[in-house]
Amino acid sequence: MQITLNLDESLLNEALQLTKISNQEELISLALQEFVRSRRKKNLLDLAGQIQFAPDFDHKALRETRHAAD
């Protein structure tokens, strides 16, 4: 896909230096991958404390069942 972007040149140059990437297309691709990874991690962290297990849930028994299947 071809897109025309107006980017901050000094920011672009700094990113190129930090990553040692010489191709702007690769740099933008890496930046998008890092952004997506960061957002997914943040979304998972937002779930912290929101999931409640049943009081009688036995996580140790679940581990033992998983290891027995290996």
UniProtKB/TrEMBL annotation:
InterPro entries: VapB_antitoxin. This is Type II toxin-antitoxin system VapB family antitoxin.
